[in-house]
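Q: What does the assembly look like in three dimensions?
Context provided by user:
Components: two
Sequences:
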Amino acid sequence: MQLVELQETAASSSDLAVYAISYDPVDVLADFGARHGISYRLLSDVGSIAMSALGVLNRSIAADQAYWGWAYEDKHHGLPYPGSFVLDPSGIVVDKRFERSHRNRRTSRSVVEDLGLVAAGDGAEVSATAAADGITAAAYHATASVFPNQVSTVRVDVALDPGVHVFVPPTSGGYTLLEASIEAPDGVFWDEPDPPSGEPFLIDGIDDELQVVEGRAALEIPFHVHEKTGETVRFTIVVRYQACSATICLPPGEIRLELSLVVRPKM
Amino acid sequence: MSAPKLDPGLGLSPVDFDEIGPPIGQRFPDVVLPDQTGRAVDLHADRAGRPALVVVHRSADW
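A: Here is the predicted structure of the complete assembly.
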């Protein structure tokens, strides 16, 4: 569950105040906090009054449940969209992330990484690296395990040798663009990563619009694993590219990276 | 590249998540709620000038 994983994040950074708001009464939160060693603040919003005032309630949850084929029950009344806000030291909202379903939630680790409070890759428990064509690609996941249905992120760092570039959108002209995808068994769902931004690259006599990355690029692949509790899931991260120098372009290539993650029991 | 989507988006009413909750750039509203010890927590006073991560979630009980 996200609240347990959130404890690991709260414990890793004393510079960050962490709060979790739910509609549970105090005694339920006290019991949960004691069982899981929660030291951050679990806030009790009985009746979802504060969450309603914040404007985070999912008011179409009955229709959403029907769409997913799940029963609507009384406990779904007053549920928020699952998500998080990031506040700067003066209390200004500087980021917010919400998910459609309470079955899909981002890891707090990925939120904190995005904030720069923990360096991306620092202490990553799972990683793989391979190189070809002047390109070194590394894929990693912050933790060795994931909870079912929790949205997490595989990060792919691409480091290019000096003088090497790869193409990114909106390059035209039939070049293979830098992309990363996941090959994984049924039950693993993922989205295409946002492409990294590049710089214009001009070649005399060629009208194609070229955007390239030199140096480093990062891609983040959001994914979740559905109902594989207790299993080890093996992912292959496939990085595709076309590597060029100022004078020569190699044929399109790919680097394949293997990761294994354990799906933790539901809590 | 074909990817099984996290959220197929078909048949679901559209949600503009930018409209969910207070907008980026605004001060987070004052929130005073009891914590797991029963003590009333004023979120802004409690964070004492630190950046904060505020998570809203379903029940801890299920």
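Follow-up: The two ends of chain B are 37 Å apart (CA to CA).
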